[in-house]
C-alpha cells in the first residue's frame, strides 16, 4: 500500500506532473552542478530518494551508464516509473519508515523531500547508513521560514492575496508536521551525523515563468484543503489563479538550500 495520506502534495494528482516539470526547470541546474562536482560517472551506484519525477533519475542514468545503478524510490512511483529501464530500478519505499533499500551507494540524493517527512531524523540516518565509506550525500531542502513570501514586492492587492495564500500553504504544511526552517539546519545535521567535510549553498529564484508554473500546480493540488480549512475561499483561489496566469506577477519560491558531505 502506498502511504500517501500524510503528504500534502499527492503524486496521484494530474497537477503533480506539472509541478515536477516546473521544479526541474527551476532547480535541476543547481542539482546537476553539485552532482557534476562530485564526479558522478560510469559504474556509480546511486539512490535517488523521494524521486517524484524523472529528470534527476534520467540524468544520473546517463552518467552511470550500463555498469552503474540508479535506484529511484518514492511512496508513490506513478511518475518516476516512466524512467524504469536499466540502469534505473524503481521501488516503492518510505524513507521515514522503512529500512534502507541496500548499502554501499556512492551517492544518495534527496530534493525537496525531508520537510514533508514526519521522522526526518530517521530518514537522514537511513540515507547515511546506505552510503559506502567515502560516499556522497546531497540533501536539498526549501526553507519557507527564511523567505516566506510568494511576492517579495507586495505592491498591490494581487500580491497581497498571493502572499496570504502562500501563508495558507505554510499553515497546511506545518499542520502535517513539516519543518519550515529545516533547510538552514542541514549543514549542522550533516556534521553531527559525522559527514566530512560539509558544505552548503542556496538558490533563490527571484522571478521565473517556472515559478508561476509551480504555483499554479501547487494551488490546484491543495485547493480543497485551503477551502476546507477556512484559509481561502473558492473565489480567492480563482482570482489568484487568474492573476498568476496573466504573467504580470513577479513570483518566487522559498530558497532551496543544498548541503553535502562525505561519509567517513
Describe the protein in words:
The protein has helices spanning 14-38, 55-64, 120-129, 157-175, 182-192, 209-228, 234-245; strands at 45-49, 69-74, 88-92, 105-111, 131-142, 199-203, 256-262. The chain has 264 residues and is of the alpha/beta class. The protein has a domain at 14-147 and 178-206 and 252-262: Rossmann fold. It has a seven-stranded mixed β-sheet with strand order 3-2-1-4-5-7-6, sandwiched between helices. Helix 4 crosses helix 6 and helix 4 crosses helix 7 (234-245). The chain is globular. The two termini are 36 Å apart.
The H/E string reads HEHEEEHEHHEHHE
Low-confidence stretches: 1-5
- Helix/strand-derived category reads alpha/beta
Radius of gyration: 18 Å
Please bin the fraction of helical residues: 40-55%
State the name of the first-level CATH class of the domain at 14-147 and 178-206 and 252-262: Alpha Beta
Largest sheet: 7 strands, mixed
Instruction: Kindly estimate the percentage of residues that lie in beta strands according to DSSP.
Output: 15-25%
Specify the overall morphology: globular
In CATH terms, the superfamily of the domain at 14-147 and 178-206 and 252-262 is Vaccinia Virus protein VP39
What is the count of helical runs?
A: 7
CATH architecture of the domain at 14-147 and 178-206 and 252-262: 3-Layer(aba) Sandwich
Mean pLDDT: 95
The main sheet orders its strands as 3-2-1-4-5-7-6
Q: Can you count the beta strands?
A: 7
Gap from first CA to last CA? 36 Å
Amino acid at each position: 500500500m502506498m502511504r500517501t495520506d500524510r503528504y500534502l502534495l499527492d503524486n496521484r494528482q494530474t497537477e503533480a506532473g506539472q509541478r515536477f516539470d516546473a521544479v526541474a526547470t527551476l532547480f535541476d541546474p543547481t542539482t546537476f552542478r553539485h552532482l557534476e562536482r562530485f564526479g558522478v560517472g560510469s559504474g556509480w551506484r546511486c539512490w535517488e530518494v523521494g524521486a517524484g519525477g524523472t529528470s534527476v533519475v534520467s540524468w544520473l542514468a546517463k552518467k552511470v551508464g550500463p555498469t552503474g545503478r540508479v535506484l529511484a524510490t518514492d511512496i508513490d512511483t506513478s511518475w518516476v516509473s516512466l524512467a524504469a529501464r536499466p540502469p534505473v530500478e524503481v521501488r516503492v519505499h518510505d524513507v521515514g519508515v522503512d529500512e534502507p533499500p541496500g548499502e554501499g551507494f556512492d551517492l544518495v540524493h534527496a530534493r525537496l523531500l525531508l520537510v514533508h517527512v514526519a521522522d526526518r531524523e530517521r530518514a537522514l540516518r537511513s540515507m547515511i547508513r546506505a552510503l559506502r565509506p567515502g560516499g556522497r550525500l546531497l540533501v536539498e531542502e526549501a526553507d519557507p521560514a527564511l523567505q516566506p513570501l510568494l511576492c517579495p514586492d507586495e505592491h498591490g492587492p494581487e500580491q497581497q492575496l498571493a502572499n496570504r495564500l502562500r501563508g495558507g500553504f505554510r499553515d497546511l504544511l506545518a499542520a502535517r508536521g513539516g519543518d519550515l526552517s529545516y533547510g538552514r539546519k542541514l549543514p549542522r545535521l550533516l556534521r553531527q551525523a559525522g559527514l566530512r567535510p560539509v558544505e552548503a549553498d542556496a538558490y533563490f529564484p527571484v522571478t521565473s515563468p517556472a515559478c508561476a508554473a509551480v504555483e499554479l500546480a501547487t494551488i490546484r493540488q491543495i485547493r480543497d484543503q485551503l477551502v476546507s480549512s477556512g484559509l481561502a475561499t473558492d473565489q480567492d483561489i480563482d482570482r489568484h489563479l487568474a492573476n498568476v496566469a496573466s504573467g504580470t506577477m513577479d513570483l518566487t519560491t522559498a530558497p532551496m538550500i543544498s548541503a553535502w558531505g562525505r561519509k567517513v
